[in-house]
Every structure is written in C-alpha cells, then in structure tokens.
Amino acid sequence: MSDTRCSRALASASSDRTLPWRCFAASAIAPLAAGDPVRAAALAAALAIMSGVLLMVAARFDLGSVADVLSKPVLVGYANAPR
C-alpha cells in the first residue's frame, strides 16, 4: 500500500473500514521486511497467527468481560471527540 493512501485513510473516515488496520499492519511489517517480499509474507503470516492465538487465549480465559468495562469510556471518548 502506498503511504499516501494509508495516511489519507487514517486521517479521514473511509467507506473501507479495514483499510486503517491494514495500513497499521503494513507499517509494523514493512521496516522488518527490509524490502524482501518473501520475508514480508512470512511476517504477515506470523502476525496473523499470533493475533489468532491471542484471541483464543482471551476467549479461553473469558476476557470479553473486560470489554464491558472499557466500552462505556471508549464510547464517551468517541462521542466527545472533535471532528
């Protein structure tokens, strides 16, 4: 992804809701890959697997209740954020 497209997506509301997250993942992987597409693919796969394992551990220990505690402050923050 180009830096311009990612910066525009992060700065404004986009109809493609996954674009900011893909840009975030790309910005985490790109410096480590050092321009090697094979290494970038391996790092992206490792990131996906680690994310999945983290979600399964969170589900196993019923950490979804933490989201109930955090949801109200997060919603208030979004409601009061400047546009």
Entry keywords:
about 80% helix
Description of the molecule:
This protein has 83 residues and is mostly helical. The protein has one domain. The protein contains 4 helices and no strands. Helix 2 (19-33) crosses helix 3. It is flat, with a radius of gyration of 16 Å. The two termini are 26 Å apart. The model has no long low-confidence stretch (mean pLDDT 77).
User: Given the C-alpha coordinates, what overall shape results?
Assistant: flat
Fraction of residues in helix: over 70%
Number of domains: 1
Largest sheet, in brief, is: none
Number of helices: 4
**SSE string, helices as H and strands as E:** HHHH
- Note the gap between the termini: 26 Å
Strand content: under 5%
Rounded mean pLDDT score: 77
Structural class: mainly alpha
Q: What is the gyration radius calculated from CA atoms?
A: 16 Å
**Count of strand segments:** 0
Unreliably modeled segments: none
